[in-house]
Write a sequence for this structure.
């Protein structure tokens, strides 16, 4: 990602709802959104997608919680794209 | 269509870089773009043209807050002349963007969070066809109650506008004794309205597909590389497939630091395989860029009886609007500079920036320091009155100086001559008092409207001082790249070529690059190439940083070229390179004898060097707002003299005087321009300029209703610049673009207070405040065509 003062890591998660899940497709998506929202790192990034931005460890921890919440709700597929901040060299020193 | 076929459409290549014969550093040098701009010959981004190009247009939400149930593009697509209608489903890559936080949809999908949010795009063969196609897009909205009040947005039970909540950033700053008490305490509530950058050249650009999946974008922007990287993400391309070239910029002031039509134009161009141009009109421009944050402040100042500051407490709330843009950095600046350029032993600052459904806010000249300067300077005047001390004396007594600590704990370095700025300003002669007898109407508030002949007119004098950071802060690795080549032209004459990505936004960075190159390489003729992404990033034309950063990079690259040149000549002549130097287009030895002319030295090959210039490291603020977060501090002070018609609330600013620490004036004429321009923009904020927002709806998106100062409103500006060099900066310079914009508003308002003896806690100051007849603000605007709110109807008596 480019850097003005961007976060160290971003992870975009898209839940592909399952029609055979324990909960409805909408409930599966909502479960993921709720878990993402609870992290305090989340923004919407498209229909059914959220993006988590922040420090490496906090983002990865939040990603796990979102995935678990999605699976618990019956989703079978969660697509993830993780990107490390490339341009902001300040992270290279840490 | 193959790439070969595409390339039969010639790209709108910029003209070859004109050769300048600049003055050296420190000499007034006429800007190379000055003449064409004055004569109407300058090519702005809105003038771009390519054969076969289409026109892009944007459908925007009329509602500040709404659920989008459906978007039907079928009627629009069926219109003759329409080549594409795109929605969020057509965004090839990431559907959100943002300089700091990727929270803003390229095109909204389920929810519109502010009036003017982009919903769909059209490409058509004529701009009017594109506009009609936008009208033919059917969007089913469910209108929601907007969250307009930033205080309400922070409440626990407020609806969340984003998944992460409404508080975008909160800074807690604690410095010194938090239990400190004082002999004299003054408090105040202050408010600053939303100012628009009001650049005259609206957002515009031309995207040209390269026929191979990539795209070239010619664009008026402030930061080519961050635009490019955000474009690449949302277009699903690699950065190498997205090439940006600067087009003519008609003003920026922060409003072009974030994206507007860049992704949209590229999406349309890639979708249609045709060049696509987008030009906003004035109304759309108001919705197309971020604005200055509206701000509410509560201040408490405590001082000893003899006027020494003991503590400052501040609670600051910035309205970030619907999306983040650069709000988190603005919040940091507001917190860091909340106490003003004073030695404050103890500080307690809480600063928040929050999401609302109001127009998004972001960078604007002064970047958070403008709002708090109105707060801390109003407080200093109030404190002076409470203590019975002259306001300038009080400021001098508490003036920040080298060795003091900022409320962030950072030690202030040389030069920081706040007391000297104020003393010199106070010593500047005042304009003569109005002569007795009939007065020229043009010299009175209201002017030739003939509203007064001098009765009820009172004169006031006010002072303000401000400061802010130069360059990027809080640990950001701020750098600029420069490529400098020294060669012989076709006639065998030496020529320096300078290539950077620095955005010329009217500040004169093209000219100053040429001055630096001529100074360092002693070559008369310099060509500064058009800025683009074919060279490394120069960072943004913001934070008063380009002369420091890109100027520093050009200087460093020239030094590297010079070193290689001297080494080459030394090797050839069997001399020590340390005994050689450049002078008058030749390499000379320590006795001043010519060893080789530049023509001789360069005939074998040109010399080219590319360097990155990084400024000194800065650090993030910790949980108490402590840290060496800033690189360099820039200071200015203003004095305003104003005549106020206290009955009608009309104002004429008679004179502005200012002192500014500049380190080193590289181009005195350009410096004059920065000070004049910043002062005018500050006067506008103090008296006229505000985006009127009711229930998150913009009421005055035009230059008819958004009031800008004209030449008739702008008084002469007396200036004195101080040149105490910063030992760590190139040539000792300081950034100069923003400080005048910071210290002008409090000075103007202080003059008005002095004239009319009213508190004036909000800017821009309205006539009714000055005349003492201000009413409570209406919660809703009157319906169009109505006779206005019932309570406001005139009655016959």
């Amino acid at each position: 990602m480019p850097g003005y003062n961007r976060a160290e890591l971003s992870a975009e998660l898209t839940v592909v709802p399952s029609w055979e899940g324990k909960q409805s497709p909408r409930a599966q998506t909502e479960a993921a959104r709720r878990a993402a929202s609870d992290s305090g790192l989340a923004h919407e990034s498209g229909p059914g997608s959220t993006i988590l931005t922040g420090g490496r460890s906090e983002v990865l921890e939040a990603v796990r919680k979102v995935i678990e919440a999605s699976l618990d709700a019956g989703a079978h597929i969660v697509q993830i794209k993780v990107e490390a901040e490339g341009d902001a060299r300040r992270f290279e020193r840490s | 269509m193959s790439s070969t076929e595409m390339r039969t459409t010639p790209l709108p290549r910029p003209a070859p870089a004109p050769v300048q014969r600049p003055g050296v550093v420190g000499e007034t040098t006429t800007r190379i773009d000055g003449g064409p701009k004055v004569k109407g010959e300058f090519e702005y981004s809105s003038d771009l043209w390519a054969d076969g190009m289409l026109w892009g247009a944007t459908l925007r939400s009329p509602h500040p807050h709404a659920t989008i149930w459906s978007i039907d593009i079928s009627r629009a697509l069926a219109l003759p002349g329409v080549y594409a209608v795109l929605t969020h489903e057509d965004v090839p890559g990431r559907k959100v963007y943002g300089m700091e936080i990727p929270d803003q949809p390229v095109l909204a999908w389920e929810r519109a969070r502010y009036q003017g949010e982009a919903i769909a795009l059209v490409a058509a063969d004529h701009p009017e066809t594109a506009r009609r196609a936008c009208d033919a897009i059917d969007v089913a909205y469910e209108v929601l109650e907007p969250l307009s009040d930033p205080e309400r947005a922070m409440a626990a039970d407020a609806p969340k506008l984003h998944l992460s909540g409404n508080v975008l950033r909160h800074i807690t700053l604690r410095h010194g004794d938090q239990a400190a008490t004082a002999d004299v305490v003054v408090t105040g509530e202050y408010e600053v309205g939303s100012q628009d950058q009001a650049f005259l050249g609206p957002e515009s650009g031309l995207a040209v597909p390269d026929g191979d999946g990539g795209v070239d974008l010619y664009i008026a922007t402030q930061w080519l590389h961050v635009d490019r990287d955000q474009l690449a993400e949302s277009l699903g391309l690699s950065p190498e497939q997205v090439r940006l070239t600067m087009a003519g910029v008609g003003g920026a002031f922060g409003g072009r630091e974030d994206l507007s039509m860049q992704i949209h134009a590229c999406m349309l161009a890639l979708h249609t395989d045709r060049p696509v141009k987008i030009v906003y009109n004035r109304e759309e421009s108001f919705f197309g860029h971020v604005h200055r944050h509206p701000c509410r402040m509560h201040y408490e100042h405590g001082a000893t009886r003899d006027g020494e500051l003991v503590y400052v407490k501040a609670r600051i709330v910035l309205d970030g609007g619907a999306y983040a843009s650069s709000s988190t950095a603005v919040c940091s600046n507001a917190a860091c500079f909340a106490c003003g350029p004073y030695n404050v032993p103890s500080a307690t600052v809480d600063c928040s920036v929050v999401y609302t459904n109001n127009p998004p806010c972001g960078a604007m000249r002064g970047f958070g320091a403008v709002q708090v300067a109105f707060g801390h300077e109003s407080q200093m005047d109030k404190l002076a009155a409470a203590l019975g001390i002259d306001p300038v004396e009080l400021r001098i007594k508490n003036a920040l100086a080298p060795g003091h600590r900022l409320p962030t704990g950072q030690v202030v370095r040389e030069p920081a001559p706040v007391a000297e700025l104020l003393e010199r300003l106070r010593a500047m002669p005042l304009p003569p008092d109005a002569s007795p007898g009939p007065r020229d109407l043009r010299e009175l508030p209201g002017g030739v409207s003939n509203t007064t002949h001098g009765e009820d007119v009172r004169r006031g004098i006010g002072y303000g001082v401000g400061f802010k950071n130069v360059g990027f802060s809080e640990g950001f690795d701020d750098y600029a790249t420069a490529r400098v080549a020294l060669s012989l032209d076709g006639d065998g004459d030496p020529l320096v070529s300078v290539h950077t990505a620095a955005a010329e936004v009217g500040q004169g960075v093209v000219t100053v690059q040429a001055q630096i190159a001529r100074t360092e390489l002693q070559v008369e003729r310099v060509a500064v190439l058009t800025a683009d992404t074919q060279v490394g990033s120069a960072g943004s034309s913001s934070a008063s940083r380009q002369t420091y950063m890109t100027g520093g990079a050009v200087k460093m690259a020239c030094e590297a070229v010079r070193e290689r040149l001297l080494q080459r000549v030394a090797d050839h002549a069997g001399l020590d390179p340390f005994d050689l130097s450049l002078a008058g287009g030749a390499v000379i030895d320590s006795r001043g004898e010519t060893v080789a002319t530049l023509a001789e030295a360069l005939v074998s090959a040109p010399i080219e060097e590319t360097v990155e210039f990084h400024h000194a490291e800065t650090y993030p603020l910790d949980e108490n707002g402590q840290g060496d977060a800033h690189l360099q501090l820039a200071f200015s002070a203003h004095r305003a003299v104003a005549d106020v018609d206290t009955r009608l609330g009309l104002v004429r600013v008679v004179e502005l005087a200012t002192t500014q620490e500049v380190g080193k004036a590289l181009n005195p004429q350009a410096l004059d321009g920065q000070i004049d321009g910043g002062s005018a923009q500050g006067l506008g904020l103090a008296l006229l300029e505000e985006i009127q927002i009711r229930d998150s709806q913009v009421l005055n998106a035009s230059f008819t209703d958004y009031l800008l100062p004209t030449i008739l409103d702008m008084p002469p500006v007396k200036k004195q610049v101080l040149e105490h060099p910063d030992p760590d900066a190139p040539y000792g310079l300081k950034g100069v673009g923003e400080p005048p914009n910071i210290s002008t508003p409090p000075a103007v308002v202080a003059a008005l207070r002095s004239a009319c003896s009213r508190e004036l806690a909000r800017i821009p100051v309205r006539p009714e405040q000055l005349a003492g007849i201000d009413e409570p603000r209406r919660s809703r605007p009157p319906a169009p065509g109505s006779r206005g709110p019932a309570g406001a109807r005139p009655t016959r008596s």
Q: What stands out?
A: The first strand of chain A starts at residue 9 and ends at 16. DSSP finds three helices and four strands in chain A. Chain A has one domain: 9-87.
